[in-house]
Amino acid sequence: MEYSFDVVSKIDQQELANALDQARREIVARYDFKNVLVDIKVADGVLTIHTTDEYKFTAVLEIIKSKFIRRGIDLKILGEEKREDAANSTLRVTIKLVEGISGDYAKTINKLIRDHFPKIKSSIQGEELRVSSKSKDDLQAVMQLLKSDPEIKLPLQFTNYR
């Protein structure tokens, strides 16, 4: 009997929407944000935060991160930030949301698994990896390795257990 699971990197869009909605509600309720421009949007895999200055942006991002953690969204989905000045000397920051496992990254993960567990088979299938073994314990050890390894900068989920 052979057991397997898939390693994927997907964002739960409903949880993302809920977390951002909670962040917006907290910002509206906070005294330090009274009469302050704060606009949070997500479109095409990009989170856009538009606010008055760097200090407010940092506070908004911390609120968003706390909501992500509370809703079980991995903070690794937040990719690189791009800052730009907007109208009326405000600040607009776009943050790319990381989703999917690129071919190069899949090869890195594959090599990591093979280096630590030579008996385990792993194969790249599009934007996911299939990991299989005769031992469930070995598969759980692979999951722990992938969760804890500092080289992995992607939010990974494990699906399709068989």
From TrEMBL:
Molecular function terms, GO-annotated: nucleotide binding
In terms of Pfam families, this protein maps to: YajQ (PF04461)
> What UniProt keywords are attached to this protein's entry?
Nucleotide-binding
Q: Which GO terms describe its cellular component?
A: cytosol
InterPro entries, alphabetized? UPF0234-like_C, UPF0234_N, YajQ-like_sf, YajQ/Smlt4090-like
Q: What SUPFAM superfamilies does the database record attribute to this sequence?
A: YajQ-like
Checking CDD domains in the record gives: YajQ_like
Function in brief: Nucleotide-binding protein.
Family, as annotated: Belongs to the YajQ family.
- NCBIfam families in the cross-refs: PRK05412.1
Give the protein name, as stated in the record: Nucleotide-binding protein A2994_03560
Species whose genome carries this gene? candidate division Kazan bacterium RIFCSPLOWO2_01_FULL_48_13
